[in-house]
């Protein structure tokens, strides 16, 4: 119990520090924007980690689900009678989850690289379809979406995402998902419905990707199908692998590190992407299991003075 | 009718392009079981080497092809040694990420040193058009070259894998790396050869595609790379004639989708077909399905 | 021992935390002896070819102005960033330029999507953003209210003007009644031109017999061209960029399609003729900003100088970006302030009859550049001035 209160306190203190910083102006709008990007990337990376890290199903389709969430929100909050932002966001997440269900049922029978390519294919199909719907702005997208969310919303949703995902992972569902990752056949023999858990992980991951997409539309104000191309999916996958497959805290750290690296590389415009790719290769060579591997760094471990059990 | 035949010709040409890249893809995948994401970029590299050889060294087509194949083979070996070999025992996904890193590096490095703007590939051969049926059907001599070279390379590759000593080693490594090692096969050497051959094929493809479309740019390998992978899966990954079959099928399907449906959806259709193939015939058209060991 | 381990973790935690905040806090010395102009361009990634060319034009014009002593006694300092052809990054960089780098105005981006994303920041921080080449009609207008966006400008004409020009040209000069369209459905530029051409052409009594779309980085057009050939149009309209344009012309001619092929300013690059081959680059017409054959001294000097500097032929991206810097410089002079963004915005709005390489530019109330378009014909691969069309 003491632990929980401590964690809550830390969450609130961090929130207070940042909010104060923004009010006073120590954190200017440029930093704020990048903090929001980090929070967004945390949501996307941790949710993909549930699919790819915990359940072991390599998906390259996260950007597709993001697109569904983003477009749903953009349409719903710009209707003649607009829906409230957070309701739209929820609907966006549900739509994305539904798409995850429809795609997941057939596709999750595949394995490994095949699954990666098939999910990539579906994400591209989603993008091409949106691109061809004139109501959604076609290739030129939707601009001037009213801002429906700010720092507080981003922070709260990111924290909620982490809490929900870590609760799932630590539940019997989560252990079943890990079992599917470790050995599908063995999992099946001990009575785990592997299809159910694979699809479940996929649907939950898609839901949060949809939420992430909706948050993007609600703050960044402009969306275009091109934003959700397969490079975006790869970006997110890179964060997950870099942080460590199956480690939520790893995904969080990787999201922070990679976003900062990308921001720092802004200072070398000509070679930024070349350096980025070299950094990526070097990190993978030195930490092929990711920064944290399968370990978790828990906030409670850092805070409490007890020795952490392994 | 003439439109149909013309579309078929267009499809076979496009299919040759996919098949050429898929040959190298299928080989590397067949032996190492990982998607070499950078394969499409090696293909791009080959196109640029051919371009430089033709412009600055004034080499002819054969010279350019050899230059590109040799350079890409070296490049493939180096990339494998630096980026993939240290990860041979790591999770496959780590190698995939490294491959993505290599792919990003090659693309951006080329954008940096050669400029992002596309280049016009020199006309290394005299263009000729052959007309049939009162000019309703047109075949270009470059299309013929493309097709013939693709088939020749496929036969050569098949011969290497099936009938030579190194080919035998490759097949052994692909079946069981540890067992192959116990039998005295030099794994590193075999994998180097695999990358050398696969990459040199990509290099040759780069030159030929550059010649055919006479346009090259640093990102030219991204989409064909993915398409070639689809083609390889389609035909049965690891099966060399399968790459050819998959490439032609994909090329013809795409052309017919754009010819009789909408060009916008041809990528979507390509992916949809991939998913269907994987669901109903996971080993591809010519592949043999293996039972999972418990 | 126990304490040491915990301490280590706390240190790691704090280190990450400070890295996060600290890295963003890197501030840069502000000098007031220069006029800082932000450059937000696609220097790497999918459309780097446009950004890299635009940067050449911007740098060339800036050097010229600085050599002549700058504006209002101050030299221009370019603060250049690469947005990786990524829309989110375009907004990120625009925010950085507006808040952290404290520039007077933002130059860029080359594509409509990235510019629209960057415009969100421009509107928020009240800083003028001027695009050299973004042509989407909706770029300078608010999608909700339809009003002109106060801080968003461009120095090129928009899609509806160009679509109109080419439709009129097809009807009146080429005297064709049926046209087939090939466009890139993944590009807002291409789609915008296609839409506007279609409206103007059908209004004038023409008929669209076929409409074929493809997606970016396509190289194989023979499938759709074969289909178009069967429909026998009197002309083809292909609002695409030069990479695809050269291939479309070549593949069409190889298939025996001999009708005129028309395009927009995306055709304005010597590569079109090179790729198509001089044998095939015939009977091709496109609208663009200026003609290399224009005897005007300004134009000829620009071309000569560019060739000397970059050993290459200038294209539309270079020319409009070159004009962009001079137009902004002119506005700064009229605003008589090197720091006031609001005054610059007003001055930009008041731009009238600015004589640039790409024509005489007036910024209209929609913040579009109003200027004449020229129509160029390709004859055996050579650009020949065909006619001038005033707005």
From TrEMBL, chain A:
Please name the GO terms that the record assigns under molecular function. branched-chain amino acid transmembrane transporter activity
GO CC aspect terms: plasma membrane
* Membrane-related topology note: Multi-pass membrane protein
Sorted UniProt keywords: Cell membrane, Membrane, Transmembrane, Transmembrane helix
Compartment annotation: Cell membrane
Indicate yes or no for the key word Transcription regulation: no
Q: Which domain of life is it from?
A: Bacteria
Q: InterPro entries given for it?
A: ABC_transp_permease, LivM-like
Grouped into one coarse class, the protein's main location is membrane
Q: Which residues cross the membrane?
A: 6-26, 33-54, 60-79, 86-108, 114-130, 151-169, 199-222, 234-261, 267-286
**What is the name of this protein?**
Branched-chain amino acid ABC transporter permease
The organism encoding this protein is: Caldicellulosiruptor changbaiensis
From TrEMBL, chain B:
Please name the GO terms that the record assigns under molecular function: L-isoleucine transmembrane transporter activity; L-leucine transmembrane transporter activity; L-phenylalanine transmembrane transporter activity; L-valine transmembrane transporter activity
What subcellular compartments does it reside in?
Answer: Cell membrane
Name the protein family.
Belongs to the binding-protein-dependent transport system permease family. LivHM subfamily.
The record, for Pfam families, names:
BPD_transp_2
What this protein is called in its record is Branched-chain amino acid ABC transporter permease
Assigned GO CC terms: plasma membrane
Q: Keywords on this record?
A: Amino-acid transport, Cell inner membrane, Cell membrane, Membrane, Transmembrane, Transmembrane helix, Transport
Membrane topology per record: Multi-pass membrane protein
The cross-references to Gene3D superfamilies, in alphabetical order and at most eight, read: ABC transporter involved in vitamin B12 uptake, BtuC
Which superkingdom, per the lineage?
A: Bacteria
Asked whether the UniProt record includes Repeat among its keywords, one would answer no
List all membrane-crossing ranges. 12-35, 42-59, 65-83, 95-114, 144-161, 191-213, 228-256, 268-287
Automatic annotation (TrEMBL), chain C:
Domain called Leucine-binding protein: residue spans: 34-380
Query: What are the alphabetically sorted keywords of the record?
Result: Amino-acid transport, Signal, Transport
Q: Which PROSITE patterns match?
A: PROKAR_LIPOPROTEIN (PS51257)
Q: Show the SUPFAM superfamilies listed in the entry.
A: Periplasmic binding protein-like I
Q: Which GO terms describe its biological process?
A: amino acid transport
Presence of the UniProt keyword Signal in the record: yes
Q: Which domain of life is it from?
A: Bacteria
Point out the coiled-coil segments of this chain.
none
Into which family does the record put it? Belongs to the leucine-binding protein family.
Q: What is this protein called?
A: ABC transporter substrate-binding protein
In its UniProt entry, the species of origin is given as Caldicellulosiruptor changbaiensis
């Amino acid at each position: 119990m003491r632990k929980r209160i401590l964690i809550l306190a830390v969450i609130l203190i961090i929130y207070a520090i940042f909010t104060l910083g923004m009010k006073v102006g120590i954190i200017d709008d440029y930093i704020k924007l990048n903090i929001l990007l980090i929070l967004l990337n945390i949501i996307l990376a941790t949710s993909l980690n549930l699919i790819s890290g915990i359940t072991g199903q390599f998906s390259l389709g996260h950007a597709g689900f993001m697109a569904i969430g983003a477009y749903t929100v953009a349409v719903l909050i710009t209707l003649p009678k607009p829906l409230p932002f957070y309701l739209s966001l929820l609907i966006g997440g549900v739509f994305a989850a539904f798409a995850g269900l429809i795609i997941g049922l057939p596709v999750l029978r595949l394995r490994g690289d095949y699954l990666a390519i098939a999910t990539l294919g579906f994400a591209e199909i989603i993008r091409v379809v949106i691109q061809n719907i004139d109501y959604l702005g076609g290739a030129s997208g939707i601009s001037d979406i009213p801002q429906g969310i700010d720092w507080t919303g981003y922070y709260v949703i990111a924290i909620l995402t982490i809490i929900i995902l870590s609760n799932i992972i630590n539940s019997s569902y989560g252990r079943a998902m890990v079992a599917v990752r470790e050995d599908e056949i063995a999992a099946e023999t001990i009575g785990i419905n592997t299809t159910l858990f694979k699809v479940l992980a996929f649907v939950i991951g898609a839901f949060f990707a949809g939420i992430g997409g909706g948050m993007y539309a609600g703050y960044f104000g402009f969306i275009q199908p091109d934003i959700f191309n397969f490079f975006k999916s790869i970006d997110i996958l890179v964060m997950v692998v870099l942080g460590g497959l199956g480690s939520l805290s790893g995904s969080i750290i990787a999201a922070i590190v990679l976003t900062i690296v990308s921001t720092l590389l802004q200072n070398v415009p000509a070679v930024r992407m070349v350096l980025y790719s070299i950094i990526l290769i070097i990190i993978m060579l030195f930490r092929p299991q990711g920064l944290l591997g399968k370990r978790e760094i828990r906030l409670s471990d850092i805070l409490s003075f007890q020795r952490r059990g392994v | 009718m003439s439109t149909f035949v013309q579309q078929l010709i267009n499809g076979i040409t496009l299919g040759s392009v996919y098949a050429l890249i898929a040959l190298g893809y299928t080989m590397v995948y067949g032996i190492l079981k990982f998607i070499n994401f950078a394969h499409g970029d090696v293909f791009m590299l080959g196109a640029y080497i051919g371009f430089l050889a033709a412009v600055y060294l004034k080499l002819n087509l054969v010279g350019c092809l050899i230059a590109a194949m040799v350079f890409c083979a070296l490049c493939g070996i180096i990339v494998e040694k630096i980026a993939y070999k240290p990860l041979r025992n790591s999770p496959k996904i780590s190698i995939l990420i490294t491959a993505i890193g290599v792919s990003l590096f090659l693309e951006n490095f080329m954008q940096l040193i050669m400029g992002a703007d596309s280049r016009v590939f020199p006309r290394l051969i005299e263009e000729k058009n052959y007309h049939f049926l009162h000019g309703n059907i047109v075949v270009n001599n470059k299309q013929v070259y493309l097709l013939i070279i693709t088939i020749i390379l496929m036969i050569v590759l098949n011969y290497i894998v099936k009938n030579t000593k190194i080919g035998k080693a490759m097949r052994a490594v692909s079946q069981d790396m540890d067992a192959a090692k116990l039998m005295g096969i030099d794994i590193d050497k075999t994998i180097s050869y695999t990358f050398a051959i696969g990459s040199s094929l990509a290099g040759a493809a780069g030159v030929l595609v550059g010649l055919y479309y006479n346009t090259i740019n640093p990102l030219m390998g991204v989409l064909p790379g993915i398409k070639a992978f689809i083609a390889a899966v389609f035909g049965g990954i690891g099966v060399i004639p399968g790459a050819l079959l998959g490439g032609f099928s994909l090329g013809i399907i795409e052309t017919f989708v754009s010819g009789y449906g909408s060009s916008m959806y041809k990528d979507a259709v390509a992916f949809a077909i991939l998913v269907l193939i994987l669901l109903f015939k996971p080993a591809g058209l010519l592949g043999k399905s293996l039972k999972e060991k418990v | 021992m126990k304490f040491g381990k915990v301490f280590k973790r706390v240190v790691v935690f704090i280190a990450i935390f400070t890295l996060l905040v600290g890295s963003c806090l890197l501030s840069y010395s502000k000098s007031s002896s220069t006029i800082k102009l932000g450059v937000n361009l696609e220097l790497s990634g999918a459309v780097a070819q446009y950004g890299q060319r635009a940067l050449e034009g911007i740098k060339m014009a800036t050097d010229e102005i600085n050599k002549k002593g700058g504006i209002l006694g101050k030299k221009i300092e370019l603060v250049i960033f690469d947005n990786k052809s990524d829309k989110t990054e375009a907004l990120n960089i625009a925010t950085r330029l507006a808040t952290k780098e404290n520039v007077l105005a933002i130059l860029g981006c080359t594509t409509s999507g990235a510019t629209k994303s960057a415009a969100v920041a421009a509107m928020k921080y009240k800083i003028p953003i001027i695009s050299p080449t973004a042509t989407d009609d909706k770029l300078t207008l608010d999608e909700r209210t339809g009003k002109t966006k106060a801080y968003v400008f461009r120095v090129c004409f928009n899609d509806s003007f160009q679509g109109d020009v080419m439709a009129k040209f097809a009807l009146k000069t080429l005297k064709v009644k049926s046209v087939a369209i090939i466009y890139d459905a993944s590009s807002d530029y291409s789609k915008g031109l296609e839409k506007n051409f279609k409206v103007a052409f059908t209004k004038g009594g023409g008929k669209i017999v076929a409409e074929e779309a493809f997606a970016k980085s396509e190289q194989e057009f023979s499938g759709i061209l074969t289909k178009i050939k069967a429909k026998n149009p009197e002309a083809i309209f292909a609002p695409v960029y030069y990479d695809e344009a050269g291939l479309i012309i070549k593949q069409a001619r190889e298939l025996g399609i001999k009708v005129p092929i028309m395009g927009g300013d995306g055709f304005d690059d010597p590569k079109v003729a090179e790729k198509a081959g001089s044998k095939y680059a015939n009977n091709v017409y496109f609208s663009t900003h200026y003609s290399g054959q224009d005897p005007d001294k300004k134009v000829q000097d620009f071309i000569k100088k560019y060739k000397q500097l970059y050993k290459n032929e200038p294209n539309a991206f270079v020319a409009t970006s070159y004009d962009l810097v001079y137009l902004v410089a002119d506005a700064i002079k009229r605003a008589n302030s090197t720091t006031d963004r609001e005054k610059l915005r007003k001055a930009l709005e008041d731009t009238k009859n600015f004589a640039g390489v790409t024509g005489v530019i007036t910024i209209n109330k929609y913040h579009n550049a109003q200027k004449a378009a020229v129509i160029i014909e390709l004859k055996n691969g050579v650009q020949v001035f065909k006619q001038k069309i005033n707005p």
